[in-house]
Amino acid sequence: MIARNLSRRYAPEYDPASGITRTPLLLLQAPPAPDERRFYLHILAAVGAPATALSARAQNVASLEVRVIALLRDLGLRMIMIDEVHNLLAGTHREQRRFLNVLRYLSNELEVSLVCLGVSEAVDAIRGDIQLTRRLDEHHLPNWRDDAEFSDMIQTLIAAMPLEKKSNLKVKSLKQILALTGGMTSRIFALIKDLSIDAIVTGDECITDDAIAKWTPVWSRHANAHRRLEKSGV
User: Fold this and answer.
1) Do residues 146 and 175 lie in contact, with contact meaning Cβ atoms separated by under 8 Å?
2) Across 187-204, average pLDDT
3) Domain total for the chain?
4) What InterPro entries does the annotation carry (predicted)?
């Protein structure tokens, strides 16, 4: 969410004078495995490189590297953000090192900032390259706690939902949300979205304390369904 928000804030802008679309920030997703060629192809697709540029002649890694560097230089790029960096761990140690070398090379050659995002294992992936580890600061998103900041976030989130009535939740319900989600941001958003949909469908048009008390997390439903299947021998 943070990456997409930044990507929207610094969206590409067309410069009619030069005929070039300036792209200050490029958001990419790491390939399922540390594959240099696939990564370069993803970059070309992300910047809208014409299909003719992806001919058989330009399929080898060296040619792709030259073309990617040339294109990114013309974009006025300032930052590269790579999500799902933990995918690097799906490759061998040698493949991981080569991919990390590519990231460091792009950052050095283009003189751009590098931001890597992922789950906790992403840190282990980056530590495969000492120079990258020294260059990148680690920032962890902590789980939400029972405090005023969490209360403000919930109120802001609910206010953004297309509900016709105000949701006046009690402190007990806020604690219940924390208990149900473990304070994880993605689960909190899923909970509020799910309850908002239910409120619209039922006509309540607001999230109530009773709705929170009765709500069953999607992840719990899946666990219950799995247990029922095991009992039935499926």
Assistant:
1) yes
2) 91
3) 2
4) P-loop_NTPase, TniB
